[in-house]
């Protein structure tokens, strides 16, 4: 699948000052990425897009906005898991969560999404006769039976170890006719290799979920990258990809080193706020507002802390690294 190859931007969700969704700002965010010419696919309702802080109607809203704005321009992946804020002391009802995933997946297909993304259903408790993998299997069976477009499984950071895929379980998952790939947020090279090896002869894509492991992932057979860098410096990730494909492994490693430098948390502790401010400076209007996330259903708008000294320092570093790749 072409949409599961290359650089996939995990769109950061834009909000108005009152915490409501900002459709205009979201389109501006997309336009800023389109202008780079380096993003292949767009993923809406991503982890860094605060996927746990959105109501059902809001998920539909951001899917509709992205699909409409990108119609004829680029493929869209839509996060369509059921509604849960990842509060493990307040797990979702199994039937409701599955029904919501089906409803959202069908809606995404109607809006023109190329594929949907389902997180590992770690919020669904197994019965006495089930294993966590049984839960995942039955959840996928239910959604697969209800939609015709491809599904990508997503294993976010901090996924309950009992629910994490293994080299054995991914072989069965890859046999589902609708399930065409998995995104795993890890930098564990051994784990990436084992999953890629288990699906090497399948019609199935492995997507690196942390750009710090993009080059090692390519070596193992990964087809794409989804990470904050796909929004912040997609040109550098494209350099890693193109150099690797051309057999310029030293050049690919050099570009990966640029990625690693920019990925270091100590250099930019709030990449989402930085990116929104940076895009706004370039004429793509949006706020840096986000929602607080936590137990309960009320999400309070907040303005993340991003002091000017840190912002300017990282901006200088980012533009210095980008200058090495933007003309290539």
Describe what you observe in this structure.
The structure is a single chain. This protein is α/β, with parallel strands linked by helices and 328 residues long. It has a single domain (2-322), classed as Aldolase class I (TIM Barrel, Alpha-Beta Barrel), CATH 3.20.20.70. The protein contains 12 helices and 10 strands. It has helices spanning 23-34, 56-70, 94-111, 132-146, 167-173, 189-198, 214-220, 229-232, 234-245, 249-263, 271-281, 308-322; strands spanning 6-10, 41-44, 76-79, 115-119, 151-155, 179-184, 205-208, 224-227, 290-291, 301-302. It has an 8-stranded parallel beta barrel with strand order 1-2-3-4-5-6-7-8, surrounded by 5 helices. A two-stranded antiparallel sheet has the order 9-10. Strand 7, helix 7 (214-220) and strand 8 (224-227) form a beta-alpha-beta unit. Helix 1 packs across helix 2, helix 5 (167-173) crosses helix 6 and helix 9 (234-245) runs antiparallel to helix 10 (249-263). The chain is globular and about 55 Å long. It starts with 5 loop residues before the first strand and ends in a 6-residue tail after the last helix.
